[in-house]
Amino acid sequence: MADERLRRLTVEFGQLPCDPHSRNEGRFRRFGRGVLLPWNGEFHWMPETLVNMPDGTTCSVNHYQQGMHNPEFLGLVRNMPGLTESIRRNSLLTELIKFDFSQTTWSEVELCWPIHVGVHLIRLSVDSPGGRAVATPDMLHQDGEPYAFAHLIYRRDAEGGENVIATPACAGSSPDDVAPESVLDRFTLCHPLDSYGVKDDLVSHYVAPVTVAAGAETAERAVLLIDFTPMTQRA
Ligand SMILES: [Fe+2]
């Protein structure tokens, strides 16, 4: 692997803790937050909440809420394991955040506020040939954040994991149940740093479950998700 920073990120993805909200769906993840200052391009990680564990140790978490956008967790605040110091210090991650932000457009008013940056590290893992790992929600949906970007970190012995982009009206449906003309694109991220981005209000999106390729015993698909939301004055 040419970039040592990508190699270190890959190691971190291999060690992600289980998503506490995954019901044996093979999902492992961490979540962190930062702010990007549009007027000077600076990015800063935000502090994480420390939670006392039953064994006397502390662990960092971040609260994640998708409001009404994820039908599987309607209105719920999900506690996610926070980022490690090694992830927070990874300059490739910071470069990707700044590159993604450079692909977005905002109003003059929005650019006077910090932009909230959500960073999800998600690995779908299948540990037996007949199994499958499922992203949430398992349907076309919108995220609620104005822009979201996905960067493949790696894929190993995986089948499936196809991405589908469709019209906004398809949110809530399976790609199999929508009219073919409503599907705008289908593609599969195959190589490290294969990427795509969506302007959330213009489309709905989906990723199919991951299964194990013929002849293999297990499979993995690791993806970095970065989203942007402008901060505003509380009403
Ligand atoms: Fe999504």
What features would you describe in this structure?
- The protein has one domain (4-230): Sandwich (Jelly Rolls).
- Helices cover 11% and strands 39% of the residues.
- It contains three helices and 15 strands.
- It is globular.
- The mean pLDDT is 91.
- Fe (ii) ion binds next to loops.
Short characterization:
The chain has 235 residues and is mainly β.
Give the CATH class.
Answer: Mainly Beta
CATH architecture: Sandwich
Indicate the mean pLDDT: 91
Our measurement of the CA-to-CA distance between the termini, rounded to an integer number of angstroms, reads 48 Å
Please summarize the sheet with the most strands.
Answer: 6 strands, antiparallel
Query: Which shape, going by the Cα principal axes?
Result: globular
CATH superfamily label: q2cbj1_9rhob like domain
Helix content: 10-25%
Low-confidence stretches: none
Number of structural units classed as domains: 1
Task: Report the structural category.
Answer: mainly beta
Q: What is the CATH fold-level name?
A: Jelly Rolls
- Say how many strands there are: 15
Strand numbers in spatial order across the main sheet: 2-1-6-15-8-12
Tally of individual helices: 3
**Ligand roster:** fe (ii) ion
CA radius of gyration is: 18 Å
**SSE run:** HEEEEEHHEEEEEEEEEE
Question: Strand share of the residues?
Answer: 35-45%
Key attributes of the depicted protein:
235 residues, mainly beta, Jelly Rolls, 6-stranded antiparallel β-sheet, 3-stranded antiparallel β-sheet, 3 helices, 15 strands, binds fe (ii) ion, 2OG-Fe dioxygenase family protein, dioxygenase activity, 2OG-Fe_dioxygenase
